[in-house]
Amino acid sequence: MKKTFTNGIIRENPIFVIMLGLCPTLAVSTSLFNAVGMAAAVIFVLVFSNLVISLMRKFIPDKVRIPCFIVIIATFVTITELFMHAFVPQLFESLGMFVSLIVVNCIILGRAEVFASKNKVSLAVMDGLGMGLGFTLGIAVIALIREILGSGSIWGFKLSLTYKPLLIAILPAGAFLTIGFLIGLINIQKARMQRAGRK
Amino acid sequence: MRLIVVLASVCIAAALLLGVTYSLTSGRIQLQEQQAEKAAVLCALPVAEKISAQITDKPIPYYEGYDASGGVVGYAFTGSGKGYSSTIKIMIGVDEDMTIQGIKILSQQETPGLGDKVDEVKSTGTLWDLLRGKKIPPAGRPWFQEQFAGKNTETVNEITFITGATITSKAVLDIVKSTIEEFRDQLTGREPATG
User: Fold this and answer.
1) How many structural domains compose chain A?
2) How far apart are alpha carbons B185 and B36 in whole angstroms?
3) pTM above 0.90, yes or no
């Protein structure tokens, strides 16, 4: 059970290892605040859709499983969207349509299909939490780097009053560069560990 | 047969759940939006003590602002137009002589770091100040929008543009100018004796 949980955070990190859900990651990681808001929405949807899908895994016939999953996921996304609009309008405005786009986030459908529909409820919830936190970790690291370089601030607070921001970091190109470098670093580290393991 | 029953019941359950959530949140969302709108009007028309509901019987819907004794001190209305990469929507406040009292950008999706500086607030402190527990003075209004206050359609050309975002700056200027002119025509059309 613990293994299922940590699996999503490190060994199968959705962003850096499985590379799912990159679209919202690239688009929303312009500031830490947006990234954390997005991640919270994803965790909520992922945990509850995993929970419900795992509960219903014996009832849902194989042939209609995808439409059923999509309906369940879309329901939780819309609930998230309505609550976000009502209680955190500031976040709702800056995330815009990316909240609704969680419906087609491959992490969520991917976990429903690969994990939740084949495992016990407790494991499915753990998997949702782990994958959600893994996503949070990924998007937060990218957003932190982009916000520091591109706006010279962390969580909206300036680091220095005179720093001239490196514009490209908060433009879309900066998202690709940041994520590319991070994945590169992770792969170097992995190769090193494998070599050490062989010796 | 089982396929249909399962899929249909999943959909019905989802619809019920959504209906409940919607009825729980819709009141608050509406309230939220009204408050945001009122805040925007007061921001564009700081002299007003009270504002009317939106008046919609003319091509440009507008709000009237009243002073403490109930006299009209100004009007607020929205204008929008094409910026560099998005439609910019602005709430504009003017007094009776069409002198700008304030503007507030309601929505824009201009280039981050360049055009979106129309919403930039000058920082008054850093993260280090915050961590050291130093008091940070409250942030003011976006400097670009502040420049419009006190200008009329002639003198508004004097404002300072944002470096690297000439098209966005000019778009804001043009939207403000043309919307005020349209609004003036609408107003004088209704009350020819004024002014």
Assistant:
1) 1
2) 28
3) no
